[in-house]
Amino acid sequence: MNPVFDAYGKYYDLFYRDKDYTAEGEWVLSRLRVHHPALVSLLELGCGTGGHAQVFAKHGLAVHGVDRSESMLQAARHRCALLPDLERGRIRLTPGDVRRLRTGETYDAVVALFHVASYQTTNADLEGFLETAAYHLAPGGILAFDFWFGPAVLAQQPSVRVQRLSDPTCRITRIAEPTHRFTENVVDVQYTLFVEEAASGVITSLQETHSMRYLFILELEAMAARWFGISEWSTWMSNQIPDQKSWSAFALMVRK
Known about the structure:
It is built from 8 helices and 11 strands.
């Protein structure tokens, strides 16, 4: 799995400035607390710029956020530095690979949000991710993650998308061009960014390819069976059963 987000990590929060981290984080917490009402500690795999971590900390959890991308961690540290002292003190941010991370600690829950699981494009990657989660959970601990739901991806098919955004410092055009590897259940999304600096008018271009694996419930249950028992499945931000319209699905698994 190649590093991603390093080329344009500093623009990440601009792309997702309308993302409702508060609603998402609180929804995830509500699902976790059904199975673990006394939840107090959480490991976030692929914490990105810290948007969900600050919500978890606001609700009293001790949060350990991990990410491979240094540019994303820098943005997360900046975000967390602006929090009140009590909430900031609940968040720890460190670099790490979700497939091999071993902190030596256990947590009440492990979460991986915004499709971190789908960035695990090989069976070895995905099993490593699941084993990492299991290692950090005591029996009864909870793993929660969202992912690209295979039936919906196949029904809807990825398409070229263009996004234009701006802030006082720059104007950005982002083009997303997918290539579908059907035999591997993977979509390679090539992002091309054109960034125009507002002050100088200078335009630079950046490229990154994000490879995303779409997943199916039966394969996830089979892979996770070694470590996890009870599983729940829904659409993201809903308690509905995922179907061909649900590109983003949500899994909750209980450590054996």
